[in-house]
# Entry
Amino acid sequence: MTLAACLVCEGPYGPSTIPGLVRCRQCGFVSADLQISQDELAELYSHRYFAGEEYRDYVAERALLERQFRARLARLRRFVPSPGSKRLFEIGAAYGFFLSVARDVFERVEGIDIAADAAAMARESFGLPVATGDFLDHRVDGFVDVVCLWDTIEHLVRPDMYIKKAAAILEPGGVLALTTGDIESLMARMRGANWRQIHPPTHLHYFSRATLARLLERFGFRIKYVRHEGMTRSVDTMAYILLTIKRQQHGLYRVLKGAHLLDWNVRLNLRDILFLVAERR
# Structure
């Protein structure tokens, strides 16, 4: 994916203080310095990604994830009058857990995901209209009122092209909502290369408030709301990621889990995840 020019401002990239990343000399946007094809990207998001490689068991945490999505939906509704007459499209819908709560509020919901197994389960098990494929190649009939990218934009090879297409399918006055890590947050700056959001090749781009706003404004969006978002997390999942994926301490994880010391959830706001809502001009 080695980039010749910044995807936000088209300025030149230079070295970053974090190994494996590059930083725009002009606007400060940060990206992974690697090459990856669309086929390789699709392979990353197999069933294993959601069950063992990136998450302990994404499907098993459906209730917890839907609770988180209800909180996001409540915040989003403040910017979407009369959602019962509106159409919502989600990019990166995975198993459709956000759509499953949004369909009770919106007249019509649909989505797409590159992860074939996840999209298939959304359709077949949960009855949700989630297509398999790349949004850039997907035909959306007509216009939509809301586009969502929850924890997705950092995974995209060309986030600029996704924002451009989202603008093209949104009605004027339509809303785009997203969440992503904030590389200029205090937590990210303190942790440096050890910040939990830095893990290419799944996370390819690292935004700040300024670079995210600049990208959206470039494609005709007006920022309506941006804040840091807290999340409710499973302690079991956090321990699994820390002990088995990052530190290979499988035995310690099994002991803690067997002793039922991980069977609880915690609400955290490390002030390093951005929640943003923008309006298409």
Summary: Residues 13-280 form a domain with the Rossmann fold fold (CATH 3.40.50.150). The chain has a mean pLDDT of 95. The first strand starts at residue 13 and ends at 15. The chain has one domain: 13-280.
